[in-house]
C-alpha cells in the first residue's frame, strides 16, 4: 500500500536506502538536495518497506500545499530498490487528485495512462575512448575546440562559490532565480559535500568561462555553464565540456546535459553526440500561484 508521508513522518534512513539502491538514482531526490531547493518543503509517497519512494516538493498558497517542481531539479519521480521503479501508474493514482502545478518524473519511469507531456534531455555515454566520442562531435564543436586549444590558457578545478555565482549573475542578469538564496544555498551544499566537478578556463589570470557538473551516481550532470563574453574565446564552454569528456572517457559514466526543450540549446548539446532522452511531466498550468 502506498502511503502519503509528511516530511516529519519520513523514515530518512529507509528513504535513502531505497534511493541509493535504485537503478535510476538521481541526486535531485536526495533529502539534503530537496531541503536546499525547497527549504524543507517536501513530503513523499512510499510503499510498504520503502521499496519504492516518490518525493513530493510543494509550495503553499493560502495554506494549501501545491506540488510543484523546484528550480535546479530537472527530474524526480519514482525510485526503488533495483528495477522496482518503472511503472508510475499506482503512484499517479495517488497524486492525480492532489493540488499539483508541475511534476517531472525521470527518464526510466514509464508514464502509463496519466495525462503527461514529454520533455527532452540529452545524455552521452562515456564508455568509449575520447577519439571515438569526438568523431560524433559536429564540425562547429570541433572548430571551437581546436581554436580554443591553440590559445594560451589553463584549466582550473578551483570552485569558489561566490565567484561562480557572480559570473552566472553577470551572464544572466535578467533571471531572478540566480539571485535567489536557493541558488547560493544549493551550491554551498554541493561544494561542502564534494559532489561536483568544476572546470574553469583561465587566461591572463582571469577566469573567462566555466562549467559545473553534479556528481550523481554514475551520472555527471551539467548544472551550469558560463560562456566567455569575448569573441576571441567564443566556444570556451564547449572546450571545457570537451575537456571533461576527454578526462572521463572509457568509464561507465553518463554525461547528462540537463535539457533542453529550447531548440538552440538542444542543438548545442546534441553537437557533442549526445542522444535525446524523454521524461514524462505532469503539468497543470491553470493552477496559478
Automatic annotation (TrEMBL):
Domain of life: Bacteria
Protein name from the UniProt record: Acetyltransferase (GNAT) domain-containing protein
